[in-house]
Amino acid sequence: MLSYNAGRFSLTVPFCFPEYVTPAIKKISKKEKIELNVNSGVANGILCKATSHPLKEIRRHEGKFSFLYEAEIFKWSNTDFRFSYSVSSGNIFGGILLQSLYDYDQSDMFCIYLFPGSEQNRKVFKKEVVFVVDISESMQGRPLESTKSAISAALSKLSPEDSFNIIAFSNEAFQFSTSMELASKDAIERATAWISMKYTVGGSTNLFIPLEKAADMLSNTRGSIPMIFLVTDGSVEDERNICHWMQKRLTNQGVLCPSIHTFGIGSFCNHYFLRMLAMIGRGEYGAAFDLDSIEVQMNKLFSKGLSTVLANITIDAFDDCEEIEVYSSRIPDLSLESPLTIYGRYQGSFPDNLKVKGILGDLSSFTMDLKIRRAKDIPLDSVLARRQIDLLTAQAWFSENKRLEEKVAKLSIQTCNISEYTRMTLLEKNIMKHFGAWKKKGDPQKIVESGPPEMILLQRLSVGFGDQIATAENIRPGSQEPELPEVAKIFIKTTSNYFGGICNRCCCMGCIRCCSKMNNQCATTLTQLCTALACIGCLHCCSESCCPNQDD
């Protein structure tokens, strides 16, 4: 897993496995070898910061560098492999990567990346923040307690000149204060006590009222950046109307209109609605599909939003060129916590000169020229496929556009990524052996197909568009998941270290459900296979960080 924090990219490859997974080998000398290849996507200024193993640099050229570790050992390593590097620039910088494609729509791909720089003293925006929190009965227990802890941590990061408010909602809205409060020590203590005393409330979920109240509170913001953080675990009927209303309101509100950051808990909320609402509001979307990761993932979202250093970002050529398609309708703000990537497709020739513009934390204007580079050995289409499908699906849901749905389906098939508009199938061929005389020398057995293959349609592995019935009945996230049999538990325990870092990027519950149908022999075989794949991955790690997301 490649992550970004405090100006560093960090790669982690698990090496810790349970004793019953590691092959039992006599105490003889063995060779342990790790080869690491990094393609940063940046021409120069790469600084290696730390590593868990004594790596030796064997080559370096224009943003690419390779390392090698070899050692004679008697016991396999149980120390996770860690490697970190930074891009040495104190100021905001970026560039453009282009990739030529030969696929279904005859277009090529571009990726614009912006780094916040390593200057930790860079001025962030003065903020006016409203937390909008779902306290319907389904949030009872871990979801609400984790949310309270994350909000308390976020309040402690506010500066005294910032202001805030909290709105808790179910079928009605409850405000911490009737107006915005300065983030003084006393106000934060009162807010922390207020949110800690909030309990879940029965009834339906009404999302429009608290969002309208939050937008009204931030309508007269001056000299600061307004923000809304929305946390929910449910789905409501008027989600498209909410998006249309917010889109119209933000368009008419001026330069520093509120940025909207959304967070979904569990599988009952409509994650594409939350993603679309964040896209409209130039914000970020986050999610947690299991109870244990709620607080960690929510803290990441809050930290990212609260450390904005460049807002109202625009690219001049995007408005003038009809041949460029940008997958995000509004460009998110740049945060100190993570680089920003803007990507899409273009036809014909790409503009020779592009300028990025925005507003800095001191409210001064920012302009920067972007250099173009051909990504000859960086597969942008593969690196960005998952994010591309998710953004296009959100837009297809919002606009109810059948052509966009077909585009997502084609992209899903081409890149082998699951989507809401495709299904995975198994083809079972009926094979029989035919015995007969042969004129030529050879095996007298001939294998022939007895008929057309049988197609087995697999269960959907995508997240879906929310469950309004479960929301109305206040069913808690994860409460309807069946108890896993022992076979599935063994598989999860065995592979948890290796796949733990990526479980929020793919639908692991689909894999777990699949495992629940296995017999013991199949589970043992699959465990051995995953162990082998993990070892192979550890032997040869290739990190391509040209298009980093907050966790990608």
Automatic annotation (TrEMBL):
Gene3D superfamilies tied to this protein: von Willebrand factor, type A domain
All copies of domain VWFA, residue ranges: 128-306
Pfam families: VWA_3
InterPro entries for this protein: VWF_A, vWFA_dom_sf
UniProt name for this protein: VWFA domain-containing protein
